[in-house]
Amino acid sequence: MPTLTKLYTAEEASQHNTSEDCWITIDGKVYDVSSYLDEHPGGDDVILAATGKDATDEFEDAGHSKTARELLETFCIGELEETATPIPELKIISKKQQLNNLPQKFFNLSKQFWFAPITVVGLSVGLGYLYLRKKQAI
Ligand code: HEM
C-alpha cells in the first residue's frame, strides 16, 4: 500500500529551530529530533547548530554508524518539497521561419535607408518647381 509522505517547504522546516521544537533536514528528509536532543551522544549543541538549514553535511561529517542512521529514520516526519525553478518562457523560431523573415527584414532595412534620399529628392523637386514658377512670374 502506498504511504503518504508529508511535504514541507524548506522555509517551514527551518522555523522549527529551538531546543523545544527542533527539526533537521538531511538528504531532503525532515526529522523532528526535539525528543532526542538530550540523548544525543554528541551533545545537543551540535544538533542545534545544524537546525534551521540543510544538515546533510554536518550529519555525514560526524561519521555516524549504521545504528545512528537507523535511529535517525525513526524521527522522520516527512520530506522537503521540491522547489522547481521556473524555466523562462522561450520563443522558439524554426530555421525555416528565420529564412522566411529575411525578405521582411531586408524590406524593413531598405525602408530606413530609402527614406532619407527620397525625402531629399522630393524636397529638391518641390523647391525647384517653386523657384521656376517664381522666376516665370517675374
Ligand atoms: C546533524 C547534526 C548532527 C551532528 C553534527 C552530530 C554529531 C555527532 C558526533 C560528533 C557524534 C560523536 C560523539 C562522540 O563520539 O563523542 C555523534 C554521535 C552519534 N550521533 Fe550524532 N550528530 C547529529 C545528528 C544526529 C541525529 C539526528 C541522530 C539520530 C537521531 C544522531 C545519532 C547519533 C548516535 C547514535 C551517535 C553515537 C555514535 C554512532 O552510533 O554513530 N546524531 N553525533
UniProtKB/TrEMBL annotation:
UniProt cross-references to InterPro entries, sorted A to Z: Cyt_B5-like_heme/steroid-bd, Cyt_B5_heme-BS, Cytochrome_b5
Domain (Cytochrome b5 heme-binding) ranges: 5-81
Keyword set includes GTP-binding: no
Membrane topology: Single-pass membrane protein
Principal location: endoplasmic reticulum
Family: Belongs to the cytochrome b5 family.
The protein's name in its UniProt record: Cytochrome b5 heme-binding domain-containing protein
Lineage: Eukaryota, Viridiplantae, Streptophyta, Embryophyta, Tracheophyta
